[in-house]
Amino acid sequence: MIQIPDVVIVGGGIFGAALAYEFGKRTIRTVLLEGTALGSGATGTSFGWINALSKGDDSDYFALNLAGMSTYEKLSSEYGEDALGLSNGGSLTVSPSNEANSALNRLQTLQDLHYPVVALSPGEAASLEPGLTFEENSVSLYCPSERILDPVKFTRFLGNEAAKMRVAVKEYEPVRELSMSSVSGTYTVRTETNSYSTRVLILASGTSTRALFGQIDPQAAQRFVKLKRSPGLLVTLSGENLSNVVRRVVYPGGGLHLRPSPSGLLLASDIADAELDRNPTADLATLTSQIIETVLARFPDSATSLREAKREVMLGQRVLPVDEHPIVGAVPGFPGLFLALTHSGITLAPYLAHLLATEILSGQPTLLPAYRPERFGV
Ligand SMILES: Cc1cc2nc3c(=O)[nH]c(=O)nc-3n(C[C@H](O)[C@H](O)[C@H](O)COP(=O)(O)OP(=O)(O)OC[C@H]3O[C@@H](n4cnc5c(N)ncnc54)[C@H](O)[C@@H]3O)c2cc1C
Question: Which residue's CA is the nearest one to ligand 1's atom 37?
């Protein structure tokens, strides 16, 4: 039997789950369809850093990220940090002496935007992160309001809240077929077990979105779903004495990122990601060993724990638009069809979901043209 909800969302990553939550709050009959488990796409392989530090060069995009951060503060005051999987501590980004000037320029830009950030001397930074060695004359930028999110826990939280508000949250129900009837103005969404007919279809299906949309119109899918490939490697270390190696998100230099994780320590590396971008078949074990060697050089006191730690490696793909800005909103020429794609989705998805749900239900634009599908042509 065909079901007729008001809204169908395809994809249960952080973005789809945040949309389900938003429509649930407004008591709209909504179905969320996730092909596997909630949070198993890019969301499940994310570093989970809620931030605006690296976004100061573009004031509109910076403001969007700031609004993304504020959305977490609102959710946190309503539900509490633990329920969301949020933790505090800020972030610390270290620049060696030869990059100190550019760090200070960045500081100025962010302070001009009234962002809470301060520059710390090596001694001050060492009091925040005693396990790290700081080069003399290095500059560290400390952003106290940035946070860490457990992205899968948060996505499940959103899914559970949406379900309480009578959204049908369907896991392990992959969409197999999409079609549009321009006569009735409806979309038909087929899974193995069900068929849904809706006037509002939102594709929040990450890197699968072009293929799904392509079932409706392959040319339009090419035009509007403009994503580039961007692999990301994450290494989780678990074992003894790892929980205090770092106390917050730390960029110690050399492209390395670290943060505490529930099992110990989470590592990522811009250098490893660039190598995977160049060579998709690069050996993950070799890259992982290289990352760990870089960590050992910067955290000598934790060498034994780092060497003995159990390693778990995850390879993800970012949902990265070609211009690195979100692709969110109505698709020109396809009434009722919406895209919900973004990088920095941990920071941005809850706020973008709020904007998109408001726009769909009010008919009033809430998003800047620079973030809409129509920027790729109409
Ligand atoms: C390595 C890495 C590190 C990152 N670090 C950060 C960070 O520190 N801070 C930050 O803000 N952002 C970060 N990001 C980006 C962020 O994780 C993503 O922008 C965000 O998770 C995207 O969420 P999404 O819901 O749009 O996509 P996804 O999480 O990919 O969700 C899409 C979902 O659609 C489902 N799906 C696909 N096809 C179908 C189908 N046919 N039927 C049903 N379901 C389907 C998939 O199973 C998937 O669950 C990082 C990303 C990566 C990869």
Answer: 205
